[in-house]
Structures are given as C-alpha cells and as structure tokens.
Amino acid sequence: MTSRTLALLAPGDRAVVRGILAEKEFAMRLMELGLTPGTEVALIRRAPFGDPLELAVRGSHFSIRRSEAERIHVDAL
Amino acid sequence: MSMPSERVAIVGSPNSGKSSLFNRLTGLRQKVANYPGVTVEKKVGSCRLPSGKQVDIVDLPGTYSLAPRSPDEAIVRDVLDGHCAPEEQADLVVAVVDATNLERQLYLALQILATGRPAVLVLNLIDAAQAQGIAIDVPAMERMLGVPVLAVSAKTGFGIDRLRTALDTRAAANGNGHGNGNGHANGYVNGKGSGSAHADGNGNGNGHRLTLEQALDPALGYANVERIIKAVVRRVPGRQAPRAGLDRVLTHRILGPIILVLFMGGVFQSIYAWASPFMDLISSGFAALAGAAQATLPAGPIRSLLVDGVLAGAGTVASFIPQLAILFFFIALMEDTGYMARAAFIMDRVMGAVGLPGRAFLPLLSSFACAIPGIMATRTIENRNDRLTTIMIAPLMTCSARLPVYALLIGAFIPDRYVLGILNLRGLTLLSLYLFGILAALAVAAVLKRTVLRGPKPLYVMELPHYRMPSLRSVAMTIRNRCLLFLQKAGTVIVAVSLVLWFLASYPVSKPGTPPSEALRHSFAGQLGRAIEPVIRPLGFDWKMGVGLISSVAAREVMISTMATVYSLDGSGDPSMSLKQTLPKVRNDRTGALAYTPLVAVSLMVFFALACQCMSTVAVARRETNSWRWPLFMLLFMNAIAWAASFVVFQGGRLLGWG
Fold it and tell me: In this structure, which of A59, B94, B267, B284 has its CB flanked by the most CB atoms within 10 Å?
C-alpha cells in the first residue's frame, strides 16, 4: 500500500481515505459528504480540461477540484 | 379565527427529489417567497390529507448536513430544533432520501431523526432503485429507526396516498400528545451497536439512534448508516445506474465539450429566436390594447397615463416572459436530468480562471440574450459570493437590447470598408463591442472577488447525480414559479419606473399644437437632459443624447424612438433608417459643430456597453438579492466605469486628432 494524495490517482484507481489535511471546517465538509477515514474512493475521470476530478464515494459521484483533492490523503489499493 | 394549520417540513439533500415530492403533495397550491433578510427561498404549499385535514407543507432548502454553515443550512437547522419563529416551526418532518443513493442520504436523515421532531422517512425514487436492483426491507428499516418508512416515487405518484395517510396518522398522534408506539417523539439516546465505540446500553431493542451531537459527527454518523444499510439493503448484482455509458460520452475529453457547446448554442439560439414571435405577439397585443384605449378614451392626461405609462410598463414586463419561460424550461430540464452538474463539471476549469464556479456559465451565456433571465438563472449557484459576483457582471454581457443601438450607430458612422482584405470594419466593430463587454465583466469579477465579495474559499465539491428522466410536471412548475415571481417582484418595480418616466416625458404639458420635439425639450425629461449635459459633455454627448440616455432606462432600444422624437423625424417609416441619415447631419445647439462624429458614436457605444441603464435589470437584481444594496451598487459602479471608459475614448481620441 502506498500513501499519496487523491489528486495523484489515475482514472480507474481505487484507494482508501486516510485523512484530510486541512482546516477543520473544510475537512468536516468533505467528511459529511462521506469521505471519512477508512472509506473507499475511486477516481473515475478527470474533466475534459484536466480539472476537476470525478470521484465515486459510497455509491455516489462527486466533482472535486484538484486543489481540494490534494488535501485528501489516501492509501492506494 | 381558525386554528393555524399544522406545518409539515420536507427536509433532504439536494438531489433527493425533495422538490418533486413537494410538487406532488401540493400541486398548484404553492407559492415561493424569501426568508426575511436572506436570499434563501421558501416554498410553501398546502395539502389535503385523507381525513380532510388541511396541512401546510414547507420545502426547506436542500442540505447535506444539519451542521449549520450556510444560510440555507441554518434555516433548516432552526426549523428542526425550534430556534425559529413559532409560525415557522414544523409539527412534523418528512425526511426524504433518494433510494438509489441511500448510504449518503441516510446520513442527513439520521440527523433529522436525532433532533427528536416527529418524523416520517420517505424513500423516494423507489422505482429507479428497483430498476437498479436495489431492494430495501422497509419493515426492518421501520423497526431499526422507530419511525414510519414509506417507499415512494414522487415522479410516478407511487406511494403518495400512503404517505398522505401516514401524515394524517402522525399528525393525529401529535395532536393527542402521545406517541404512536414507535417511541419516537421523545428523542431518546440510543447508540446501541452503532458500530462506533459508543453505546449506552438502552435496552429498547429497536434503536439505532444517535443523539444529534453524535449524528453530526461524520465518523459516527456514517458508521451508523453503514450498519443500517447492511441490515436492510440487498443488491441484485449486475444491474447498474444508467450513468457510466452516458458519462463516457457527455463528459468525454473531446465529445463532452463539443456536445456542451452545441447544447448551449441551442439554448442561446432558442432564447434569441424562439422567444421573438411570442414577444412580437405580446407587443402587438399591447399595441391593440393601446389602440383600443386611444379610440375609446378622450384625449387627456388619463389616456396618456394609461397608454404611455401603464400599458407601456406592463408591455415591457410581459415581453420578458417568453425568454424567461424558455430559459427556465432548459434550466429545469438540465437540473432534472442531471446534465447541469455535468455542464458545470466541464466548464469549471474555464470559469475557475476568473474565480467563478462552472455553474456561472449558463447565467452568463443567457445574459447575451438578456440579463433578466441571466440574473434569475444564477439561482443554480450555491455559494453566495459567487452568485452575487455573477449577478453583478451579467449586465455587462452584450444583451439583445443593445444591438439595435449598436446597429444604428455603426450603420451611420462606421465606414463599410474591409481591413486586411477580409474583415469588414462594421462587423469588426460589433465583435469588438461584444469582446469589450466580456473583458469588462471578467475584470469586474476579478476585482469584486478580491474586494467586497472576498470570502472564505468555498468548497467546490459538487454531486454528479444519477441521470434521470425529467418529469414534465416539475419542469412546468419551475417555469410557472419563476415567471410568477418575476411578475410579482420585478414587474411591480418596472411598472413603477415606467410611470415615473412617463411623467418626466409628459410634464409640464406644452400648449396644444406644439411639435413633439419642442414638447419633449420643455418636459422634465428635456430639462433633466440639459441638467446632466455638463456631466456628459466630456464624453462628447450633448443634452439631446442625454434625453436619449434617460429614456433608455425603460429599455436600451427605447433610445432610438426617443432620438427620432428629439430630432423631429416625422415618425413615418422605420425610425432607425431615417435616423441613420439624419444623425450625421445634426448640429450641436451650442457650438454649431456636427453633434455626431465617428468618435462620438464610438464613445456612445462604449457607454452603452458598460452603463447600467436598464430598470428591469435593477429590479430583478433587487428581487434576486432580496435587498436594494446590491442593485444600487451595480447602478453606481457600472455607470462610473461607463463614464470613465467613454471619457478615455473621447478625450484620448481627440488628443490623437480623431474627432
């Protein structure tokens, strides 16, 4: 298992959330959307112009900007 | 006085199908208003229950959590924990979840149940869930949660009658002051076996309920959700949501943007083109009304007020309805199908360059037709500062009302020449004006986002919901609500301003037989034009253009008919055609020099590109921001930069010897 940020995953990669390195408010928001530590996420695709990214978390899909994804640390599966 | 009706609040995440459930329960008995002091909308309707009892239904703003961070969320939280005015309190809560997205949406639902308000849980989109092979054990869920759980499809109407009955039973149980055996209303704590380290051993046996504080903790909340899902949901393998295939095309690296551009082009084209026959119909309808009034009423101030004031104002208001209806048809369609989120996904990078979210794209594009629907479309932007920035720059997009003015001035003063062999100078001028508006908008956005609308960086996380078939019913409801709101809130302001403009142009009354140009000259509008002449002289404008500018407050293209009156055209034929020949010959009253030179024309067009002249824009900005502060700010800054830009163009041009 290698640890990296979500922004570094390639489309199709799956990973497990380790933690969010950000101010509490920001981290809370992401966790409320289901990105709690231990949750499996998948990077589905990048938007046509490279940013944002599409994630699958807990059965639903999100668009998240690269700069936001860089704060989420994951263990690649 | 009758007893106030009981209130049922519908609460759920965005994309839970909350609004279609609201529409299904209330039908046409609904109205949209604002919560006092905030821009958050409040939708209230009424519903008759099987017992004959009438209840009020409130559709609360969509939220992902009850932790109050935005004004929307604060309202939901206040209603649920009773920190609101007594008449806003909910007697019963309907927690709505999308059954195809249970894991994420149950997180909020469990928080709602944890507040202890009497509640029922609605599993909406149950038909879609079944199609995707998701089976939910409803009785087991009821036992675990201790509240009635209803499988419903707001779109087809499946389960709605049972929901009405359940509301009846719950409402009756509240009224009698005792629970219905589910032990719900007291909001007890029970973290038993919730998968977290926490359990307080309440022996109730059916509880998977956390305190509100626990439910607000994402780790505890989701752990509890996972436990419930494991117990009640079974998946038939092999079936999938209709997303993968569609997304592969619609958000494809190359196809995605092409499809989006084609679609947006279609939307834009329809606002422009489809609306015009209806707008023509409306204006000929109002012309017929005016004709009838002319024929039946004796000449005099009453007839003049009715025809040139009231009917003119009402005609302006009504003429926006076709554009609004068409735009909101597409917006509702995009939102309901889920394509809006994909469009925002694609455009986010582009809009992000100027600090705006991808969702700002459609309102700004629509503003090229007209800023009124454009500003109303900003409602799809969630963040307040982003939304206000978009509202502020929308009027800088070159709207269709500027076009007749540009066409007149370009036709009269820009030579029909080719530069570099292929580029027509007139076309180039028009294109430059469009680009000028866009650049000005981007600059203003950048400045606003760094100054008055600076704020904590919002999270741009956005859900990409499942694709769904749109429901005609809810599309129709959106169009109806938007148009009604515009008529009630912005329409009244527009009519009021029309009356003021009528008064300015009609009083003091000149002697009968005075030529119209003389009458206008002596009217308050004429006097005002002369009063502002010192201010606009450095831009190359004289008082007659001042009168034109004042009249353009009604709508920019009105300037043309006013100019025709000012320059005493006989009114026969197309005013634009005869003005084209007249303007280059008009002389300035004071200096005797030619009033219009190509430089003056360019200065005037630059002024039109940037100035906030349109009363309807101001009125709709007031309605959408729910205050006068932002529209007044818009009026001030736009006119200030318009003045400054025209000043630079005219004075700079003169220094260079062009005028």
Answer: B94
Angle between helices B598-610 and B629-655 (to 10 degrees): 160
Q: For B159-195, what is each residue's pLDDT tens digit?
A: 999 999 999 988 777 654 433 334 333 333 333 333 3
The last residue of a domain, from among B210, B235, B260: B235
Q: Which range of residues forms the domain containing residue B626?
A: 490-655
Domain count, chain B: 2
Q: What is the pLDDT of residue B153?
A: 95
Evaluate the CA torsion angle B173, B177, B183, B186 in order and state its sign.
Answer: positive
> Domain with B172 in it: what CATH number?
3.40.50.300
Q: Any CB–CB contact under 8 A between B219 and chain A?
A: yes
Residues of A with CB under 8 A from a CB of B: 25-26, 28-34, 36-37, 39, 44-45, 47-52, 54, 57-65, 68
Q: For B422, what's the count of Cα atoms within 13 Å in the CB-facing half-sphere?
A: 0
Query: For B339-394, how does the pLDDT look when each residue is reduced to its tens digit (9 = 90+)?
Result: 999 999 999 999 988 889 998 988 998 898 889 989 988 987 888 899 999 999 99
Pairing between β-strand A3-5 and β-strand A40-46 as defined by DSSP bridges: unpaired
Residue A76 lies in a domain: no
pLDDT category of residue A58 using cuts at 50, 70 and 90: very high
Nearest to B459 among A26, A36, A59 (CB): A26
Q: Between residues B45 and B193, which one has the greater pLDDT? A: B45
Quote the percentage of chain B above a pLDDT of 90. 40
B607 CB near a chain A CB, below 8 Å?
no
Q: Taking CB atoms and an 8 Å cut-off, how many pairs form between chains A and B?
A: 101
Query: What percent of chain A shows pLDDT beyond 90?
Result: 77
Domain assignment present for A77: no
User: Is B518 a member of any domain?
Assistant: yes
Chain B residues lying within 8 Å of A39, measured CB to CB = 222
Query: Which residues in A lie closer than 8 A to residue B467 (C-beta atoms)?
Result: none
* B362 within some domain: no
**At residue B586, does pLDDT exceed 50?**
yes
pLDDT reading at B650 higher than 90:
yes
Is the CB of residue B243 less than 8 Å away from at least one CB of chain A?
yes
Side by side, the strands of the sheet bearing B6-12 are B30-34, B41-48, B54-59, B6-12, B92-98, B119-124, B149-151
B69 touches chain A (CB under 8 A): yes
pLDDT of residue B315: 86
What average pLDDT is seen over chain B?
85
Domain that holds residue A27: 3-70
Q: Which residues pair with B57 in a beta bridge?
A: B8, B45
Under the banding of pLDDT at 50, 70 and 90, the label for residue B37 is: low
Asked if A77 contacts A14 with a C-beta cutoff of 8 angstroms, the reply is yes
B contact test, residue of A16, A31, A55, A58 with most B CBs within 10 A: A58
> Which single residue is written with the structure tokens 């609904």?
B30
For the segment B65-94, the average pLDDT, to the nearest whole number, is 83
Q: Which residues contact B454 (CB under 8 A, 6 or more apart)?
A: B385
How far apart CA B287 and CA B319 sit, in angstroms, is 12
Q: From the CA of B39, how many Å to the nearest CA of chain A?
A: 22
Domain count, chain A: 1
- Among chain A residues, CA nearest to B226: A58
